[in-house]
Amino acid sequence: MAKERIERIFFILNEIVDSRTHSVKTAKIRECCECSERQVRRDIETLKNMGYDIEYNPQKRAYLLDLQKISKKIPLLNNLNLCFALFYNFSQTLAGVNLLPFEKKVLENFISDFQLNHYAKYFRFEQTCYDLVKPEVFKCCYQAMTGGKKFEFCYINQNGKKSRRAVNPLQFYYYLNNWYLLAYDFKESEIRQFKLSRISEPEVSGERAVQCVADLELEDYIKKSFGIYKGKKIYQVKVRFYRKARNIVRHQVWHQQQNVREGRSARGKYLELELPVSSYEEICARILSFAPDAEAVSPREFRSYWKNCLLNTLSRYLPASAAIKNSVAGKRALQPGNA
Prior knowledge:
By secondary structure, the protein is an alpha+beta fold. The protein folds into four domains: about 5-75, Winged helix-like DNA-binding domain superfamily/Winged helix DNA-binding domain (Arc Repressor Mutant, subunit A), CATH 1.10.10.10; about 80-120; about 135-215, SH3 type barrels (Roll); about 235-335, no CATH class. Helices cover about 45% and strands about 25% of the residues. The chain contains 13 helices and twelve strands. It starts with a helix and ends in a 6-residue tail after the last helix.
């Protein structure tokens, strides 16, 4: 949405809300904003879509706001101000840890232009456990993405192996306080995700990127499984939560396609969560954060993976004799019917 149109919408809404009759004449909007009647109608339609009950009165040649209807839907407070205040605060948080994908000066001009100081102070975002991204990585990737060019870079995977990649950049993806790039990898002939903090030596290729991924295909790739790890294979996993963890997870959404049910076992009441994953790694780490009140249930390979994570941790941090003793006890405790 262009800055001029945003300013017009602000003007229209402020005039309607602040005026004694809660109305504004079309002629006044056109005169003050130097716009056409068609542009006015389009801006009014935008406000209607946001929940403001604004109707045109032909006799008065003015737009009127129905306060009785608006009070049931949204507060009289300017919704646009709130939207921009949320955007500003989130961007400020990213800027504070050098994760903003554009210059901080742009953000400062934004809040100055739209006078958001009053609303911005009511919101706060906090970043933790994030990786720093070099500004040139954002810049080069965005240029390639919007210019339809191939994006080339060096990438270090989580095992420390470095390789040179050539991709068609599709979308920036912000997940759990870190930036990722979703891209079509020409070497692997599939969609891959790359952590921006692991990218170095970025270059915009002179070669045009062939469009290999449709928008719907990308959307399906993102939504079909839990977590940042995506893949062609999908596994339906089940996890059970007990005691305090049960009460916490009850109010959480881990995936849009999750199924939740409650039951009782030898350990007591539980909440069972079923959801699709492409990798056991991230879901297992999430379960372990609720230990000892969470367990992997199925499929069998997933439960075995979870058990091995527990036993490997015990063997690494406990003395050998204690580790063996606890491992045996742990195996018994983790048998079906004992967990």
